[in-house]
Amino acid sequence: MNHEPAAHTSRTFAVGQLPSGGSIDVVEHTYRGAEGPTVSVIAGQHGIELNGTAVARRLGDRLSTMSIAGTVRVLPVANPPAMDHRSYMGPAAYDVVNPNLNRVWPGDSDGTLTERIAAYLWDRLADSDAIVDLHSGTPEMLTHVRYCDDGTTADRLATAFGVAHLLVDEPPKSDPPRTTLRNAASQAEIPALTVELANSREVATEAVAAGLEGVTNVLKTMGMVPGDIENTPTQQVLRDDIPAVCLSSAGLFEPASRVTVGDHVQVGTVLGTVHNPETFELVETITADRSGFVYSLSRGGANAAGERVASLASRASTADTEQD
């Protein structure tokens, strides 16, 4: 592909309206070079997940000094109400029905506020040749890239991103009316990556650097920016096919000291305990009912019944990974 110096433009467009009549605005940055593919990079679906937004700024700085083929579209804050309220989801006072933006794609222009935001954004994303959706995980979560095993080039792009852990999902078996951005893109046959970059609620320098290099690697793989991909780490491919570990009882959850993210645990491994914080009674012992790799684990806290405290995944295949 031919590459030309990237021309940067930005625009602000309204994605919703506040009760006071004010608009909810999203800023879109576009970096356009010679003829080529279009890649959309989106961050800030969840207001406390800050690393992706930090990656977006650095990506803009990098692209502004490069020659590129195609167009890179960057949406650094997809959900301004959530970020303004410093919350994971949008404020329930605005949308009690659908507060989680990443559960309502591709949206509904006649729906609730969150559905309308998704619909406006989807209009901007639907022409993409690939989508990179930047998130940040819990404090105890493996940095990983998630993609659908859907026959697109998502697997190749996920591998190129260059993190040590990949998490593969089965593609949606039907056309769900509302779903994650990754699944909506899969239904539209657009390769899409969901990137979980270290800890939410803070800007983690190493995670941001990994995210910037990862997005750049995706663009290199698609021929949009010059240069070769540097060696990626040994990668472990996991399949998200084990039900989440959730509490049956409310109480104070404390994780087991000998289990950490990245461990491979067997059936019956104790993952933590739940005590009544007032009577000190042991209410529940949480064990793994399937063998698998722990990719997310709660640090502990006052939990309600039904809350997730751990996530496990199995190996995608013996050819893809080696068991710990």
The CATH class of the largest domain is Alpha Beta
Spell the H/E element sequence: EEEEHEHHEEHEHEHEEEEEEEEE
Domain module tally: 2
Number of strands: 18
Query: What's the Cα radius of gyration?
Result: 20 Å
Straight-line distance between termini = 42 Å
Report on the biggest sheet: 14 strands, mixed
The portion of residues forming beta strands comes to 25-35%
CATH topology of the largest domain, by name, is: Aminopeptidase
Q: In terms of per-residue confidence, which ranges show pLDDT below 50 for 5 or more consecutive residues?
A: 318-324
**Could you name the CATH homologous superfamily of the largest domain?**
Zn peptidases
Average pLDDT confidence is 93
* Bulk shape: globular
